[in-house]
Amino acid sequence: MRYIARVEVSLKPGHSDPEGETTKNSLVELNYPVRNVRVSKVYTILLEASSAEDAERMVEEMCRRLLANPVKDDYKIYIEAAE
User: Fold this and answer.
1) C-alpha to C-alpha distance for 28 and 73, rounded to whole angstroms
2) What fold, for 2-81?
C-alpha cells in the first residue's frame, strides 16, 4: 500500500534561527506586528509499506539517519494513506 509521509523538521528551542530572525525583521519593516518567526523544513515522502505503522517506522528511521540532526532538530511525522 502507498502512504504519504509529511515530516516537519524544526530547530530545538534555544538554537539560533538566522533565517527566521531575518524574516521577522523584514515583516516588521513591512509594518506587521510580528514577534517571532521560526523556519522549518517539510518533507513530503511517497512510500510503499505494508501498514501505516510500518510506514511510520521507516520514516522514523529516515529522520534518525538523514532528515534531522538529533542534536539541534525536533521533528514530527504525519502518515496518511495515498489514493
Assistant:
1) 26
2) Mth169; Chain: A , (3.30.1280)
